[in-house]
Amino acid sequence: MEVHGLDAPSEFFLTCDHAGRLIPRALGSLGLSAEQLTRHIAWDIGAAAVARRLGTLLGATTICQRYSRLVIDCNRPLDAVDSIVLESERIPIPGNRGLSPNDAASRAREVFHPYHDEIRRALDGRQARGRPTVLVTVHSFTPSFLGVSRPWHAGVLHNRDSRLAAPLLRALRAEDGLVVGDNEPYAAGELTDYSLVQHGERRGLPHVELEVRQDLIADERGQEAWAARLARLLPLAVQGMADRPPPG
């Protein structure tokens, strides 16, 4: 994993669950081609660069998972059916077939737990020091999925607690020319969004999951533009939380 600015001064705390496409050497290529491993099935294209730039602009701690979601998905509970996928976007994953419980546990021990333990340690330390924390998880999504085009430029995801999501959604929708989804193109929930639920919701921290369309952040110019936009709007959204109490 990558950890940037562990002692950074900002109240913002950023994570990127699908930042990389590394595969442990012992697993080879999971039976996939080099081209397949550059696609969205392996990682969130552009998300890590946006998260790093955003962290720098906000002066925030940023923790990124560099291993591919195809090894084990660090944004899924370990008992979720797609924790270790057998197929993604109609592409079979040969290296994930026939895994024993011990094989799956080994991946969790080597990839999933170290990432989330690092996040927990950092958040525990902030809490012990009385530091306020606003959790933002950064993801990206494909312009089309299984042949269906997606109209959104970005999505704001939330589950039970929309304190931060609601004002951020308003702020993004006020930007000229943007189409922004409310729990689109994905809906957040306990079976599909481990980081948001475990590190944000269950700690009572203000939080949001951001999805940005990949063609908008595939190059450096787009990554810088979206990081700058989010660095401008996230503090405004935090100010907009004042009249929204946490869920009871």
Please indicate the count of domains: 1
Spatial separation of the terminal alpha carbons: 34 Å
Average of per-residue pLDDT values: 95
CATH class: Alpha Beta
Short overview:
The protein has 248 residues and is an alpha/beta fold.
Features:
Aminopeptidase; two-stranded antiparallel sheet; globular
Q: What does this entry look like structurally?
A:
By secondary structure, the chain is of the alpha/beta class. The chain has one domain (about 1-240): Aminopeptidase (3-Layer(aba) Sandwich), CATH 3.40.630.40. The chain contains five helices and eleven strands; from the N terminus they run E-E-H-E-E-E-H-E-E-E-E-H-E-H-E-H. It has helices at about 45-60, 100-130, 165-175, 195-200, 220-240; strands spanning about 1-5, 10-15, 60-65, 85-90, 90, 135-140, 145, 150, 155, 180, 205-215. The strands form three sheets. The protein has a seven-stranded mixed beta sheet, with helices on both faces. A two-stranded antiparallel ribbon has the order 4-5. A two-stranded antiparallel sheet has the order 7-8. The longest helix has 28 residues, at about 100-130. The radius of gyration is 17 Å and the shape is globular.
Task: Give the topology.
Blueprint: E1 2-4, E2 12-16, H1 47-58, E3 61-64, E4 87-88, E5 91-92, H2 101-128, E6 134-141, E7 144-145, E8 148-149, E9 154-157, H3 165-173, E10 180-182, H4 194-201, E11 207-213, H5 220-239
Parallel strand pairs: 2-3, 2-6, 6-11, 9-10
Antiparallel strand pairs: 1-3, 4-5, 7-8, 9-11
Helix pairs in contact: 1-5, 3-5
